Amino acid sequence: MNLLKKLSLGGLLLFSVTAFSVTAFAAAATAVESSQDGVASKWTIEKSGDQVVGNIAWSINFTINRPVGDVWRHMKDFNSWMDDLHYNCVVGDAAEGSSIYFTYTDKMYAYLKKVYGTDAPQNYKKTLIVRRNEPGKLIVWEELSADQQKTISYYVWAFSEHEGKTA
């Protein structure tokens, strides 16, 4: 897949986020025009009885020099721009309340083996519940604990447009 050709709408900047890496793809560096662009993470580790809980919050902010409609058409299909994960559907079209999932691609398995020296389970699958989906504006997913009793993480993708640019 020629990602740069696929995303040549005036230089889209897209991020692929996994638990292991953040990879930025850019067709043209001029697409980034905001001093607010950046990546930040915050984390805490808490102990509750015999359980250790890690809380991680990632914030990725960037500006794309295109209207939100142009950006949404590409962003909503994560499989068109992520090469380390594979989603079972076009996530931006998933109905609220439905379940979606992703699996690792061969590239991710190779990465884990090379960097961490481990063989990840070949049947890895993470299921997420679509809690909110406003095309062109917002996607919110929720991940439940293995016993389905607690929310263990949220994933939020928010888009806004100002003066013809998407943030």
Written account of the structure:
This protein has 167 residues and is mainly beta. It has one domain: Alpha-D-Glucose-1,6-Bisphosphate, Chain A, domain 4 (2-Layer Sandwich), CATH 3.30.530. Helices cover 14% and strands 42% of the residues. It has a 5-stranded antiparallel beta sheet with strand order 5-6-7-8-9. A two-stranded antiparallel sheet has the order 1-2. It is globular, with a radius of gyration of 17 Å.
Sequence-ordered SSE layout with sheet pairings:
Layout: H1 3-6, E1 13-17, E2 22-26, E3 38-48, E4 51-61, H2 68-75, E5 85-87, E6 99-104, H3 106-116, E7 125-134, E8 138-144, E9 151-158, E10 161-162, E11 165-166
Antiparallel strand pairs: 1-2, 3-4, 5-6, 6-7, 7-8, 8-9, 10-11
Which key phrases capture this entry?
single chain, 167 residues, mainly beta, Alpha-D-Glucose-1,6-Bisphosphate, Chain A, domain 4, five-stranded antiparallel β-sheet, two-stranded antiparallel sheet, 3 helices, 42% strand, globular
The number of distinct β-strands equals: 11
Secondary-structure element order, as H and E?
Answer: HEEEEHEEHEEEEE
CATH topology: Alpha-D-Glucose-1,6-Bisphosphate, Chain A, domain 4
Structural class: mainly beta
- What is the architecture at the second tier of CATH? 2-Layer Sandwich
Strand order of the largest sheet: 5-6-7-8-9
Mean pLDDT across all amino acids: 75
CATH top level assignment: Alpha Beta
Major β-sheet profile: 5 strands, antiparallel
Strand content: 35-45%
Oligomer: single chain
